């Protein structure tokens, strides 16, 4: 699945998240939006929930059983959850593996 | 009968009461009833059957059957005979043999089978230290199995004489529904609470809301001992509106934490009925309990023969009626005989509020979550029929909160999740809100009406 198909799934999850946030403090839907880490919009619990929602969206579209928050992700050289773009790249990379 | 169990003190007092009430209704079911005279005859028939089969004092007898005269008569005859009773009524077919083996049963009787009075010898000779201690003391015994809702079933050996002591005082004549079977401490408690006062124990073939409500109407039941899960299902079914339940005076609930939202709805649905929380453990017996006020989740537990203390927020109990021990697990009492119930409680003077079992506790990044806290909030949602919350391992936060939900109307998981998060906002701390939701169609409770949290 190309990155261009993954980013809208992440945006949809951000939009759901924004429904629960103060209207004057939404998480922007851009590829540079920091998610987890420096200046990130999510705390660890928020990240757990966010990743599960993204997983569901990706798996529904790709017909896979991908798990994003696992030991593999934790052991990446760079945090794959640092921003929207990095997350989309990481998902694309993992999908290539499982679908190969 | 003679024997070293001061035989007369174990059951004779009860059978003497039965003789005075010979014409009163003792047991009732769908289309049948039996009076105390019938029950005495049933006990006498079992003594003859024991003689034919060679069953004598100290023998361990496993049996299957519900609340008919045959099964209740058998249980009473076993106690009178100082045998060790192993009721297996609600064990799964595949578990019965395993349970009989753990209890070292010497005879098997199937009261619901084609030859209900036949006893099959197993060839086993009990050698467990606790069993031999009870047998040598000439006391009747009872082996109960935990439901295993959070793991493997444990076999608990009780001195039956001690369990029965609390029923010897004056008792009221009550019409009580037996929601739990004879292989549960709650079922044993209901049976003897009903019979010791000359009341009627009403049984149901199924524990569905419909069957229970019909039995209440048919038999003018006054007391319904049950579980929060069942009461929740009852409200959803609407069966209480289709049957005349005006005879009900008291509904007791135990075995799990009552969600505040369910209790509030119950008060609305049953305006004239008193609700009382009971507290008991198969290991200890059933304690007397008193609610702070009707509808309150704060209770005082204890009564004669029970002592309680709170250590680090956990309830500990020392009970005269406590079991002798597990037949398939290690000792669980401390040196002074106190038992750690693993029930976390809040305390306000002498009043307690149950938070849940520490064994069900979910640890989200070091924060404690009791499933019942989350379940009670999710049950407030209109579209939630039933919910079970549990923890699941998660590499980021240790454990995460997972909700398994039965919906009233179909809804997509994504829509439900969004709605659930909105509902939980402000009602639960963020770490308590389920991050994962499974929408299921099947029932989430076991034969005893208790939630199943294991996968």
Write the layout of secondary structure elements.
The complex is a heterodimer of chains A (100) and B (455).
Chain A: H1 3-19, H2 44-62, H3 71-74, H4 84-99
Helix pairs in contact in A: 1-2, 1-4
Chain B: H1 7-20, E1 25-29, E2 32-35, H2 36-53, E3 60-64, H3 69-80, E4 84-87, H4 93-102, E5 107-110, E6 119-121, H5 129-136, E7 141-145, E8 155-159, H6 160-164, E9 175-178, H7 185-196, E10 200-203, H8 209-219, E11 223-226, H9 228-237, H10 239-242, E12 250-253, H11 260-269, E13 274-277, E14 279-281, E15 285-291, E16 299-302, E17 306-311, E18 314-319, E19 325-326, E20 339-348, E21 351-357, E22 362-364, E23 367-369, H12 371-378, E24 384-394, E25 398-407, H13 413-424, E26 436-439
Parallel strand pairs in B: 1-10, 3-4, 3-5, 4-7, 9-10, 11-12, 12-13, 25-26
Antiparallel strand pairs in B: 1-2, 5-6, 7-8, 8-19, 14-15, 15-16, 17-18, 18-20, 20-21, 22-23, 24-25
Helix pairs in contact in B: 2-3, 9-11
